Amino acid sequence: MTPANTRPQATDIAAERVDLRAADGYPLAAYRYRAPGQARAHLVVGGATAVPQGFYKRFAQHVAAQGVDVLTLDYRGIGESAPASLRGFRMNYLDWGRQDLAAAVDAMRTPGTPLWLVGHSYGGHALGLLPRPELVDAAYTFATGAGWHGWMPPLERLRVQFMWNVLGPVMTRVAGYLPWSKLGMGEDLPIDVYRQWRHWCRFPNYFFDDPSMRDVTARFDEVRFPIVAVNALDDAWAPPASRDAFMAGYRQAPVKVVTLDSRRNGLGPIGHMGYFRARATPLWNEALKWFDAQAGQQASSA
Questions:
Q1: 17-31 pLDDT, tens per residue?
Q2: What's 41's domain CATH number?
Q3: Fewer beta carbons under 10 A from the terminal one: N or C of the chain?
Q4: How far apart are CA 98 and CA 125, in angstroms?
């Protein structure tokens, strides 16, 4: 392992373009951040809805500098994995997990090397959508929640209901997709992502309450690896109650929930996106410390 006093700075870690192909043939853009020397583990970042992979670059560089190879990706329809136009582009929201994230997991799985997954918002949903969850050794999620407006603070609840019931229908009817970027909310979204997301956000427990999703949600019982779920008190989109509603779906996995009071511990405002901004570096180090502990426990019990 590289001595601490000579370890490269995170900003020295370069991104290496990787072209993935999902099981259904869809081409995906990904970037690998290689650890200096021999990596002690591999880590895949499952991003949030409408968030391009570049948002996670600083996190990936930091983790790679600590000796872990990291892979980020753009889901189909997002960032560098999007077609020239989203008008007429059709897809299933679930395929971000069961096809796209699955391709990243397959690419990073190496026998004898721990494979970890960090999920942001939707990325925490995607854990249960993986066709082979047994390939993952442990997962850490930030801001994963059920999406129901009832879990949100009153003002955010009104904003979300206006978006789903007024603004979204008008914008998608005109554009043929959700021009999310015009609202300053991230990448534009394919029409099917918008429609499915809107539908499941009607339920307190997200798609676990949708009778048509029973075959899908039953597969969440196949997730057996340990999970830590971190949610900040000031995360209006996914406060702790929303997290608890969704994470209850991982019925067979050991799930530890962490409620973060970011102002009290000196991190400042976190919201829904601050988990991956520079000031959240202490959170990243906590995640790595936990992952290493899991790897040690799994090695000792092998």
A1: 999 999 999 999 999
A2: 3.40.50.1820
A3: C
A4: 11
